[in-house]
Write a structure and sequence with these properties.
- The strands form 3 sheets. This protein has a 3-stranded antiparallel β-sheet with strand order 1-3-2. A 3-stranded antiparallel β-sheet has the order 6-7-8.
- It is built from 9 helices and 8 strands.
- 50% of the residues lie in helices and 12% in strands.
- The chain is α+β, with helices and mostly antiparallel strands.
- It has 2 domains: 2-153; 172-223, no CATH class.
- The protein has helices at 2-9, 21-35, 42-55, 61-77, 111-122, 131-149, 187-200, 204-210, 212-217; strands at 79-81, 93-94, 100-103, 157-161, 167-170, 172-175, 181-184, 222-223.
- The chain starts with a helix and ends with a strand.
């Protein structure tokens, strides 16, 4: 993971691929995928955050979004479910399942600065990118900003209230080959899904249905169309 950070922070120069956005995106995405395999990333977080925040200034929208997704993941992983001896704290949150989540450490000390950057990206009106990319950029960075503000919120989180007066929560539905949709309510699930699809490509659903290891790595609800 340190090697991947070297590639990212040098914009590919460390592997003689200077300013290759596709390589940088691949390294960012792989770092995020590997991070989902670790229970505790506190010791990795400071260096990783410095690198990913720097990449929010990239001229490539793909690099910016990939870096933002990893930032959201790191904020999510800074909270874990409360244990029996955890006293209630001001930073406690309640996740979508009603579990009390406890903040274990500070992800980034310049949070206000980070929020300003994310707000700018979420409202970007740059004409150098297409209307479609700009819309996608706004959606992605609003999601990321929402998680920075409240780390128990997953991707596509909706604060709208249902008929019982509860927030709808994460409403990301990912279509899968062969019909049906996966409900992705955590950033780690999104990173894991994308990592498995990059690796297995068109064989993803076959492995998900028949390979117990792959199935166990991504416990999600699949809904029929």
């Amino acid at each position: 993971m340190e090697y991947l950070l070297d590639i990212i922070s040098s914009d590919g120069a460390v592997v003689d691929a200077d300013d290759d956005p596709n390589l940088v995106i691949a390294a960012i995405e792989e770092w995020g995928f590997l991070a989902t395999q670790l229970d505790d990333v506190e010791d990795l977080t400071e260096a990783a955050m410095d690198t990913f925040v720097d990449q929010l200034e990239s001229s490539d929208i793909g690099v910016q979004i990939a870096a933002g997704d990893n930032i959201a993941l790191l904020y999510e992983k800074s909270y874990t479910e409360a244990e029996s001896d955890d006293e209630a704290g001001d930073d406690d949150e309640v996740d979508g399942d009603g579990d009390r989540m406890v903040k274990r450490y500070t992800v980034y000390r310049q949070k206000h600065h980070l929020e300003q950057i994310l707000e700018g990206l979420a409202k970007s009106s740059s004409k150098r990118i297409s209307k479609k990319d700009r819309k996608n950029m706004h959606i992605e960075f609003n999601d990321i900003l929402s998680t920075i503000e409240k780390p128990t919120r997953g991707p596509r989180y909706s604060t709208a209230l249902d008929e019982d007066g509860r927030e709808y929560g994460s409403r990301m539905k990912v279509a899968i080959h062969g019909g049906g949709k996966m409900t992705i309510d955590k950033w780690w699930k999104l990173h894991r899904l994308n990592g498995l699809k990059r690796l297995l490509q068109s064989g993803f659903m076959v492995h998900y249905e028949l390979n117990q290891t792959v199935f166990d790595s991504l416990p999600v609800i699949i809904e029929d169309d």
